Amino acid sequence: MSTPGNLPADLTSFVGRNDELTELAHLLGQSRLTTVTGPGGVGKSRLALRAAGRLQDRFPHGVWSVELSGLRDAGLLEQAVADALRLPDHTTRAPRHALAGHLADRELLLVLDGFDGLHEECAALVGELLRRAPGLRVLAAGRRSLGITGEQLLPLAPLPEADAVRLFTERAGGVLPGFAVAPPEEGLVAELCARLDGLPLALELAAVRLRALSVEQVLERLDDRFRLLTGGDPTAPERHRALRTAIGWSHELCTPPERLLWARLSVFAGPFDLDAVEYVCTGAELAEEGVLETVEALVAQSVLSREQGADGQVRYRMLESVREYGAVWLAAIGDELRVRRRHRDWYLGLATWCELDWFSPRQAEVATRVAADLPNLRLALDFSLDGTEGEPPDDPAVGQYLAGTLWFCWVGCGRLAEGRHWLERALDACETASEARAKAMWVYGYVALLQGDSAAALAVLQECRREAQATGNETAEAYAVHRLGCLALVSDDMARAERFIGDALLRYRGIGELNSNVLMGQVELAMAVAFQGQLDHAVRLAEDVREICRDHGERWALAYALYVLAYAAWKSGEPERSRRLAEESLAIGHAFHDLVGSVLALEMLALVTEDEGAPQEAAVLQGAAGRLWQSVGLRLFGSRHFNAPHTVCEKRLRSALGDGPYTAALSEGGRLGFDEAVVRALNRPRTHGRRPGGAGGGTAPRTQRPAASGETAG
Prior knowledge:
This protein has 714 residues and is mainly α. The chain contains 34 helices and 7 strands. The strands form 2 sheets. Strands 2-3-4-1-5 form a 5-stranded parallel β-sheet, with helices on both faces. It has a two-stranded antiparallel sheet with strand order 6-7. The longest helix is centred in the middle third of the chain and has 23 residues, at 336-358. The protein is globular and about 90 Å long.
């Protein structure tokens, strides 16, 4: 298996820096924290990623890059790192503790780029992670050091003349195929590189101008027309003024529509697509039909970079220095508030479309789309709840609606901690009863339930139900009753769960509601009756969900229906059927990064594997599941019903292997990451043997002890 990680692929050649790469490798071997420092545009990010790529073999648990330049909310710093590590966490633990727990026994390299806007918070996080994870090493890139004891610094200087000339020549060749520096121009190119102080970003921007100008003309314009720009702040370092010169020069040579679009594009964070640009950035002096041509011009001038995602969609991105320059111009022309409102409205519409399309054959596309657009959804949430500098939010209910509408992102795509962050902010922003607030309330209750915070879930769901009854909001009342039933389910009160969830399903039917949440309600009802011994009834309910999912192309709720069917098949002594169903459930849950559904299916496969006569492998799968449960909460939610089959399996494995080998196999499984565990579970060779005595774990005992985490709607 290849080394895990998420380093981006190089889009252009890497020039020079051999000494710096060697030095970085040495520093990372000597110190657990190394920071590359230097001005914007000097190539810190590129060098750090290049060095990290060369060192992947040193780190068995991978090299992971975290891009922080687009993050504005310090409260999401830990979540951004967890996202980059593909670490879902459904517990009520602080994200920092979840990160530390995940990293505690891993050997990996974390590359932190663009931390300058969150310098203090990032320093505190890195310091704590380094203390609690001895196998962790960090390579940071920023304009200044993090200031942590033991930190090694590599101040990055501009490129030396020979490398600067080579970089300029290579980039010019990309603009003008066959470009070469003729002898008469060698001195001019060297002078140009010197005037731009050897800054890679400045050189690349300059190379673009060769489409229309000669090297001599480029140098003349830099010398004459932009003399004031190079002056600027007399106390600023020369390199900073050189970068401003290069960016300002590109800006000055843009046409008026290009400059205007550049300014308006500064409201985006991370990648964005053409549809978003056409909506957000049109207006006075820039018609929608001219946007594509203007975007193409900015790409050609390296103001925008073009990237194609795994979903095949083309998106655009701005370097942070370029974005900041545009933001200054947007504020100067007095258009910032209007454009930010349009940005919010676009992503509000996108969230609404995604929620509707979640219940459709495009569910996987929605999951991919919302992951790609998350940086901009965060900006829209922030603007909706806080407004912009000097201006309060237009209507906090918009933020409440947006936070609630993204329930499928928080729950279905494994982002519970972030969802709770935004939902708490949304509910605190305004206490006036409204449909938007009611939706945010039941979604908050759903998220808290899944995190195992039963007290918070109960309080907000009861409040939501009271408000819904007082205002005649039948939809919110149905959802509140449904989630109160889920709370009973994970607290082992099956009769109450059956009554509440059944009531909610009747309410859904009465108001014509049919979506993934409704189907999950029927799955949860199937679980409640299955735990009461009514397997035939449970199978009928789950099979009905399965058919509806097939009709509508729904996959997320289907994974849970398959889990119920796998459980019923195992209880009925049909391990081969149980395996097929559990494997399909696991594959779907993994595709959505849904940790709750995935770990349930993994537990089921451990049971089946033991029944097939492979106790060693079954114990490994139990160990892998045990590791993953740490990111969910208590193993099997602390529920006696959910735990009973696991306990039966553990007893059989200890009997077959002995305590020592069983513990060793658990440890082996515990070293597997999420992806590795799924691959192992889904690629086990088929066997035709079976443990003597058949399957089935007996009737689950009953208890009223509260659980710590919700199982039913991950």
